[in-house]
UniProtKB/TrEMBL annotation:
It comes from Larkinella punicea. It is found in: Membrane. GO terms for cellular component: plasma membrane. The keyword Transmembrane applies. The lineage of its organism: Bacteria, Pseudomonadati, Bacteroidota, Cytophagia, Cytophagales. Residues 4-180 form the Cytochrome c assembly protein domain. Keywords: Cytochrome c-type biogenesis, Membrane, Transmembrane, Transmembrane helix. Its main location: membrane. This is ABC transporter permease. One of its GO terms (biological process) is cytochrome complex assembly. GO terms for molecular function: heme binding. Pfam families: Cytochrom_C_asm. InterPro entries: Cyt_c_assembly (IPR002541), Cyt_c_biogenesis_CcsA/CcmC (IPR045062). It is a multi-pass membrane protein.
Length: 253
């Protein structure tokens, strides 16, 4: 049945907007598809039977990608801090802090999944281990970053000092959790002479879930950051409007 003239005027512009939106947001749809696949296969798929690990090996699909994605988000946050120091754009500072917030969220989830895993395999949710202690120190550094930002009232000073601290924090965080634990004895796989999971526990089927999980969680973290950046921009606009209203009233009087 042919469309009437009025329907055509409404239908085609809407279709055009939908196509443009889909082209811009394809990565969000990809993140949803990947995470649905990871959760479904990760919880219900077959896994290698290993002593001590047993079914807890499924945590590889969630715990490990959380940490990889967290490092990517922290790196991106540091890059935007450098951009702010070079160009002085407040939007770069906003993006930097929101990437840091998303990274901290992933770090908290990584610690939670790691503690559950440690309680099953090691019998202690947080043993006195160099790797875990280094992670705790690193997370405290980023909590201090958020506290530092909230301690300044001046916007420019807050952005400049927190950007410098963010660069310093990332430069310390990476060797703190990746290099130093390898120099000492550790229970954690891949540290202290212990082989990593890929060398003795994982098969090709698990890699088909692990690698997409890293991509999916990274995209999800970027999505969360984008939403928080938009919310921050709206909040800043409202603050500017509220600041301008008293001036407008005083001028009118």
């Amino acid at each position: 049945m042919p469309l009437c003239w009025c329907c055509r005027c409404c239908y085609f512009p809407i279709c055009g907007e939908v196509k443009i939106t889909m082209k811009k947001n394809w990565w969000k749809a990809l993140a949803v598809v990947i995470m649905t696949y990871v959760i479904w296969v990760g919880l219900l798929g077959t896994v290698p039977r290993q002593p001590i690990l047993n079914e807890s090996i499924r945590n590889v699909y969630f715990h490990v990608p959380l940490w990889f994605s967290m490092i990517i988000l922290m790196l991106t946050s540091m890059i935007y801090s450098i951009r702010y120091l070079r160009k002085g754009r407040m939007d770069d500072d906003h993006i930097s802090v929101e990437f840091a917030n998303s990274a901290i969220l992933y770090g908290i989830l990584g610690c939670a999944t790691g503690s559950l895993w440690a309680s099953v395999t090691w019998g202690d949710p947080w043993p006195n281990d160099p790797k875990l202690n280094s992670v705790a120190v690193g997370m405290l550094m980023y909590f201090a970053y958020l506290i530092l930002r909230n301690s300044f009232d001046d916007e420019l000073r807050r952005a400049r000092i927190s950007a410098i601290y963010n660069i310093f924090a990332f430069a310390v965080f990476v060797p703190l959790i990746f290099i130093l634990p390898r120099l000492t004895d550790s229970l954690h796989p891949g540290n202290g002479g212990n082989p990593a999971f890929g060398k003795y526990d994982m098969d090709s089927g698990m890699r088909l879930v692990l690698y997409p999980s890293v991509i999916g969680m990274t995209l999800l973290g970027v999505w969360i950051t984008q939403l928080r950046v938009r919310l921050r921009r709206l909040r800043d606009r409202l603050d500017h409007v509220n600041d301008a209203l008293p001036k407008a009233h005083s001028t009118a009087e």
